[in-house]
Amino acid sequence: MAKTAMITGASSGLGAEYARQLSAMGADLVMVARDREALDDLAAALRTRHGVGVEVLAADLLEPRQREKVERRLTDPGRPIEMLVNNAGFGLPLAFERNDIEDEVRHLDLHVEVPMRLSHAALGPMLARGHGRILNVASVAGFTPRSTYGACKGWLISFSRWANAAYAGRGVTMTAVCPGFTHTNFHERAGLPPGKEGVPDWMWLDARTVVAASLRDAARGKAVSVPSAKYKLLVTASRLAPARLVARAAATGR
Ligand SMILES: NC(=O)c1ccc[n+]([C@@H]2O[C@H](COP(=O)([O-])OP(=O)(O)OC[C@H]3O[C@@H](n4cnc5c(N)ncnc54)[C@H](OP(=O)(O)O)[C@@H]3O)[C@@H](O)[C@H]2O)c1
């Protein structure tokens, strides 16, 4: 188990669940997000419950100065980070042509530029030590045509496949985590209340199962983790089905 894990987007949803599960396994944490109060509350609870060290690093990853603070923490030689979970993200409420283009650029930055920069910062020290794990929280949307969200997540999947093959032999693995619809604050924050998007109940996963499955897959050094049997089946079917059918099915929800 990683001695110290950094998790971005640790104030809510999947990131908070990574914090709960990794600290229960004995890992110290560095928790990153903008909402300092939410991070402080969770950090205090985890310190008490599991006796681990938890650092709170409040930062808006879209602000270069604040992001650089996080990069510096990743490269601090005296306080090594053995696991990085690139998880912070948000959804956009409208169709591409109706979204504000600046919102689209921020969305692209948080889902692609930020994990690329943080992975780059983490990788140098991890390779020098000969071990480390990076998890990139992508999505099953990365396997199908699904607006800029699917495109960003597809980038993360492709990057993780390449990096895992390139660096596993030197002790560093990279895993793209590809959940389906998961109960978190994601949909509500994007202005899309969960359960009201025409997504049937059976398609929803809970964060606990997603995080546990992804940590098992990352420990095995897998490049891609698709939590739950039903989404594994859907991903396989999407590879075999005609492109037009896949595009129509992918238009369900957001
Ligand atoms: N829920 C799903 O159905 C689903 C499915 C597949 C993939 N995912 C992916 O899972 C990841 C986590 O999302 P979630 O579902 O757990 O949603 P969530 O509950 O809304 O959590 C998103 C996290 O990202 C952080 N964040 C957002 N903007 C940030 C910024 N500029 N700087 C720093 N942190 C920022 C938020 O913290 P602050 O607001 O405190 O900054 C929050 O902790 C995302 O990458 C998402 O694309 C979600």
State the share of residues found in helices, binned by percent: 40-55%
- Strand residues, percent: 5-15%
How do the helices and strands follow one another from N- to C-terminus? EHEHEHEHEHEEHEHEHH
Question: Numbering strands along the chain, what is their spatial order in the largest sheet?
Answer: 3-2-1-4-5-6-9
Shape assignment: globular
CATH class value: Alpha Beta
CA-based gyration radius: 17 Å
How many structural units, i.e. domains?
Answer: 1
Largest sheet: 7 strands, parallel
Please give the alpha-carbon distance between the first and last residues.
35 Å
Number of strands: 9
**Unreliable residue runs:** none
Bound molecules: NADP nicotinamide-adenine-dinucleotide phosphate
Short description:
With 254 residues, the chain is of the alpha/beta class.
Structure write-up:
With 254 residues, the protein is of the alpha/beta class. It has a single domain, classed as NAD(P)-binding Rossmann-like Domain (Rossmann fold). The protein is built from 9 helices and 9 strands. It starts with a strand and ends with a helix. Bound molecules: NADP nicotinamide-adenine-dinucleotide phosphate. NADP nicotinamide-adenine-dinucleotide phosphate is lined by residues 8-9, 11-15, 33-35, 38, 60-62, 87-90, 110, 137, 139, 179, 181-182, 184-186, 189.
Note the main attributes of this structure.
single chain; 254 residues; alpha/beta; Rossmann fold; seven-stranded parallel β-sheet; 50% helix; binds NADP nicotinamide-adenine-dinucleotide phosphate
